[in-house]
Amino acid sequence: MTDARILLALTTDPRATVVALAERLGLSRNTVQARLGRMEQGDALGSFERRITTKALGYPLTAFVTARVDQHRLAEVSEELGAINEVVEVFGLSGETDLLVRVVAADAEDLYRIAGRILAIPAIERTTTALAMRELVPHRLTPLLLRRAAGDKGAQGGR
């Protein structure tokens, strides 16, 4: 619960110092510093990049490409996808498709070029591209943090 409270405070004020967080949460500076250190070493804190919008960088289009791949060459596919700057996320999936690739593009012509680069990867057998028309629910974690901070067992997988 303490970690969730610290993370919630950071969502409100991402630039808060350790001292400011400690004062706001009624915790010692050492406690906050130690917990933040553990979170940075673990996988609790992601990169600052998530806060930058791709539109601000000149990429207003977002598309999702699903791909079927030769499973024996998945590492090669991942490496080649990582070499395409406009590929911003790749998830391995269960089901009929193997990968979900989130790409950004400057315009439709740019998206066509990027989709072609993805399809040209030798181990990719087939792709389908869907253009995101609008973001209806933006990436968010605050509702989960509120549950965790409240000690809700649902936040840990139970009901």
Output the radius of gyration.
20 Å
Percent helix: 25-40%
Number of helices: 6
Average of the residue pLDDT scores:
90
What's the count of strands?
A: 4
What shape does the CA trace take? elongated
Main β-sheet: number of strands, strand sense, barrel status?
A: 4 strands, antiparallel
Structural class: alpha+beta
Strand content: 15-25%
Q: If strands are numbered along the chain, what order do they take across the biggest sheet?
A: 2-3-1-4
Report how far apart the termini are. 17 Å
User: What's the helix-strand series?
Assistant: HHHEHEEHEH
Q: Which residues sit in consecutive blocks of at least 5 with pLDDT less than 50?
A: none
Quick overview:
The protein is of the alpha+beta class and 159 residues long. It is built from six helices and four strands. The longest helix has 13 residues.
Can you describe this structure?
There is one protein chain. This protein is of the alpha+beta class and 159 residues long. It has six helices and four strands, in the order αααβαββαβα. Helix 1 (2-12) runs antiparallel to helix 6 (142-149) and helix 2 crosses helix 3 (29-41).
Helices and strands, with pairings:
Elements: H1 2-12, H2 18-25, H3 29-41, E1 61-69, H4 74-82, E2 87-92, E3 99-105, H5 108-119, E4 124-131, H6 142-149
Antiparallel strand pairs: 1-3, 1-4, 2-3
Helix pairs in contact: 1-6, 2-3
